[in-house]
Write a structure and sequence with these properties.
It is found in: Cell membrane. The chain is of the alpha/beta class and 237 residues long. The chain has 2 domains: 15-51, no CATH class; 53-203, 2-Layer Sandwich (Beta Polymerase, domain 2). It contains 4 helices and 9 strands; from the N terminus they run ααββαββββαβββ. Strand 6 (164-165), helix 4 (174-185) and strand 7 (189-190) form a beta-alpha-beta unit. The radius of gyration is 23 Å and the shape is elongated.
Length: 237
């Protein structure tokens, strides 16, 4: 370290670089940690650029079997025009955006119609789009047709405090997955047979995977060195 008396460059300590300083959370997805700006790489290491997801309707033809699935659902489901908000084809995947109150109805048609036969719901997951969408919680249903060897994604979005119909009566595999989403995000699924926490203790307050949930952590001791929780670590700039 040099100082002005040595004729060198004055040593300055970056803001937040002192030990035990609160970690500085990037204010936006476009600004990374450790001084990285503009790349979308929030890790600050790889220089990776985040690709913005496609949100606009995809024009037909969609390609592959996607047109057949779309047309079969439209023919089988009388409420198709009102229930389907948009159709997006991105990265070789078909996503049907469904109005929240219609998601169980659409799942029933997707499973039972002979032209569709999506017998398996392999996954139900959620994302919190806090600050970028008024309907901040997006719940996705990954459906597989073992009969026709096809895959499709259904997606429904709800605002905080708005519930979704449970699809467990159609796809029993959604039981524990909906419980995980309730536990981590606080999304309520109407009609679920046992909507209780599944990962966190029953008396836990809050939902840990919400974007506005405070950073936590416990000190970790490793070979005599103690690693503080994330919100108490130093920031390199």
């Amino acid at each position: 370290m040099t100082n002005e008396s040595d004729g060198g460059v004055p040593a300055t300590q970056p803001v937040g670089a002192d030990l035990d300083a609160p970690a500085q959370t990037p204010p936006s997805p476009d600004k990374g940690m450790f001084g990285v700006k503009g790349t979308g790489d929030v890790s600050g290491f790889g220089g990776l650029a985040r690709r913005r997801p496609t949100t606009a309707d995809t024009a037909r033809p969609f390609g592959g079997y996607f047109d057949e699935v779309h047309d079969a659902l439209e023919e089988a489901y009388p409420g198709f025009a009102d229930a389907i908000e948009k159709v997006v084809v991105d990265r070789g995947e078909l996503t049907l955006h469904i109005k929240a109150e219609r998601i169980a109805e659409v799942c029933q048609i997707m499973r039972d119609d002979e032209s569709l036969r999506f017998e398996l719901c392999s996954s139900v997951d959620a994302v919190d789009y806090l600050g970028s969408d008024n309907r901040r919680f997006h719940v996705s249903y990954q459906l597989t047709s073992m009969t026709y060897r096809r895959r499709v994604r259904l997606e429904a979005a709800v605002a905080e405090g708005v519930s979704l119909p449970s699809v467990t009566s159609v796809y029993p595999t959604a039981d524990w997955q909906e419980r995980e989403i309730y536990d981590m995000f606080g999304v309520v699924f109407d009609g679920h047979p046992n909507l209780t926490r599944i990962l966190m203790p029953d008396d836990w307050e809050g939902h840990p995977q919400r974007k506005d949930y405070p950073l936590g952590g416990v000190p970790v001791e490793y070979k005599g060195a103690e690693i503080p929780p994330p919100d108490q670590r130093r920031v390199y700039q």
